[in-house]
Structures are given as C-alpha cells and as structure tokens.
Amino acid sequence: MASSCQKKPEYPVEPSIKMKYLTKDVVEETIPTMVNNEWVEPEDSIKIIFEFTDGDGDLGLEEGDLNNNIFFLDSTNLCRVDDPTQYPVNVNVFITDMRTGCIRTYSMPYITPEGIIKAISGDMSILLNSFICRKEVPRVYDTLSYEVQIVDRSGNFSNIIETPVLLIKCN
C-alpha cells in the first residue's frame, strides 16, 4: 500500500520572478504602423520568458476588473507615468526599455488556483514586436535590454529582472 501527500510550496506573498531566456537575440528594426485605423502586425518579434512564484496566488486580472492595478500612460508615447490626469490602464506587467526608461505595460491573465493551496509557480512569456533604433547616431546595429517587473492584485511588486542584450538591425 502506498500513499502520497502534496507538499505545500512555501513562497512569500510578494511575487518573485527569474529570467529564463529571450527567444531571439537579433531582430530587425520594426516601427509600429497603422493602416485604415488598424495596427499592422510587425514582421519581427521576440518573447521574454521568465519564471514566477507567488505565495498567495493572486496574479493576473479578471476581465473588467477596474479596482486593482490601475496605472497611467502618457497619451503621446504610451509610457507609464505617475500622473493621474493621464490615461488609466489596468495592468500587471512592466517592461522598461533600458535605453530610454520608457515603461511599457502588459497584462497577464487571471491565474489564481482553486483549492486550499494558493501558492503558484510557472513560466510566463511576453511578446514584444516593436524595436526602434536610436537615431541620434547612425548605426548598423543598436543594443537594447529590458527590465521586467510584475505586480499582484494586492499591490505587491516583484523583484526586477534584466534581460540579456538584444541586437536590433537598424534600417
């Protein structure tokens, strides 16, 4: 006769993340373009893959949740700002362009587990598909790295991780 018990993982209530990899290390410069009021999907993209843990399992946002994780975007460049007069968004993933300091925002899905054990862990991927070379100095390649951070529904921010360097082939 054999039996087993599931041991409860012990993670802090603050989310924690760890960099795994980028799906590519070289991309073509792609500039977001709109045609007939629709964004044209750029040719090149990468995924940032990272691990996450959260002790109380309150990651992600439910559809229509307007109470948690409200941040503000500058209406001109769509970077995160601390100005409540700007455009409010409900997000939980922040990706900072280390060249410019612009913080782009993303949302991860609602992933709170059912049952008694709420601690969760897994892998997350974020798709990026816009890569612009700095124009102040003409170059064949530009380099870019990102910082990534997440926040749970209780407002607990994770640690910050940095991606490997990405090369952008400039047009």
Description:
The protein is an all-beta fold and 171 residues long. The chain has one domain (16-169). The chain is 0% helix and 40% strand. The strands form five sheets. Strands 10-9-13-14 form a four-stranded antiparallel sheet, with no helix packed on it. A three-stranded antiparallel sheet has the order 1-5-11, with no helix packed on it. The mean pLDDT is 86.
Question: Can I get a quick summary?
Answer:
With 171 residues, the chain is mainly beta. A hairpin with a 2-residue loop joins strand 3 (33-35) and strand 4 (38-40).
Sheet with most strands: strand arrangement: 10-9-13-14
Overall pLDDT confidence: 86
Q: Whole-Å distance between the termini?
A: 67 Å
Q: Main β-sheet, in a few words?
A: 4 strands, antiparallel
The assigned structural class equals mainly beta
Query: How many individual helices?
Result: 0
Broad shape? globular
* Gyration radius, in Å: 18 Å
Number of strands: 15
Give the uncertain stretches in residue-range form.
Answer: none
- Beta fraction of the residues? 35-45%
